[in-house]
Design a protein that fits this description.
Helices cover about 80% and strands about 0% of the residues. It has about 90 residues and is mainly α. The model has no long low-confidence stretch (mean pLDDT about 95). It has three helices and no strands.
Amino acid sequence: MSWLSIGLIGSIVFTLHSFQQIKMTLKEKGHHVDLMTGWLDDYRRFKQLALNEPDETTRYKYQRVLNGLYLALAGLVFIPLLMIMGK
């Protein structure tokens, strides 16, 4: 197993963790959340929740979750590209 494979697995795990954090936060705020579907709708609701949050500390926490999701999704795109171009 190469380092790129390990990085790809890490990106997958971190992406799923970020979506889990989004779903847990939305559920705590009273939104309806389905475990396996509605990921884009949950993302949009969470982003709107982060924009409308009056507490600055909580808003930064939400933004860290979003930034982690963006980084993990970038890893899901670029690592397979590196794997394909390396062969």
